Amino acid sequence: MEFTRAESFLHDGLLQSLELTKYILKTNGYPREPTPLKKLREVTARHPGKLMSTAPDSGQLIGVLLKLINAKKTIEIGVYTGYSLLLTALSIPYDAMIIAIDPNKETYEIGLPIIQKAGVEHKINFIESQALPVLDILLQNKDNEGSFDFAFVDADKENYLNYHERLLKLVKVGGLIIFDNTLWGGTVAQPEEAVSEDRKESRRSIIEFNNSVSIDQRIEIALAPSGDGLTICRRIR
Ligand code: SAM
Ligand code: CA
């Protein structure tokens, strides 16, 4: 598998050694990737936004966490072609569910035939919308408070803190909220002037998010340097 160093930072990881990134994917990521996910990755590779897809090693970590907490009621914000959505659907039980939110239905439909063939579409309630209004509607029903086991956020970085506040009400104590791209290509540790213009705004949002959750007493936290950085938050109060 060939990829440029820039691609490896964006898609396959922040590890400074390209060889180590390849090693992890070759020994673990690709051989243990379920066939439908492999197909979805291959189909996505033909799409111009392919680098937005969740990295297979991050996917593996998310899959293990979903099983560890026996997640049954989940939310995903930011679907794209559905790599993380399909991996969630494959990791949760037959009668479990995912509310999946994305304003772009066209990209969801790229992966949909693979999701259908994998026999997990019945678990998915896809909502074509910006996520904030959907979360607000969910919160209007008190029964939804503390009812979700798991949430994965991989959408507009400017709203990460807004998502965090709402998801902390929707996810139960002991549940997980995972945020992707929290190292933003490594730029969080670089001076702003070294960062390209198109990455600056999201970098600022991610830094603000990282600072805020690092002192948030309502959660336990781990920032895993997998893919582009995964912040794992466990609600404790
Ligand atoms: N998790 C996906 C995967 O594994 O393939 C990748 C998601 S991609 C990085 C980001 C997605 O967030 C895009 O599909 C985009 O349409 C969606 N998005 C952008 N703004 C959004 C918003 N306000 N609410 C929900 N989704 C949004
Ligand atoms: Ca991502």
From TrEMBL:
<keyword id="KW-0808">Transferase</keyword>
<dbReference type="InterPro" id="IPR050362">
    <property type="entry name" value="Cation-dep_OMT"/>
</dbReference>
<dbReference type="Pfam" id="PF01596">
    <property type="entry name" value="Methyltransf_3"/>
</dbReference>
<keyword id="KW-0949">S-adenosyl-L-methionine</keyword>
<keyword id="KW-0489">Methyltransferase</keyword>
<dbReference type="InterPro" id="IPR002935">
    <property type="entry name" value="SAM_O-MeTrfase"/>
</dbReference>
<protein>
    <submittedName>
        <fullName>Probable caffeoyl-CoA O-methyltransferase At4g26220</fullName>
    </submittedName>
</protein>
<dbReference type="InterPro" id="IPR029063">
    <property type="entry name" value="SAM-dependent_MTases_sf"/>
</dbReference>
<comment type="similarity">
    <text>Belongs to the class I-like SAM-binding methyltransferase superfamily. Cation-dependent O-methyltransferase family.</text>
</comment>
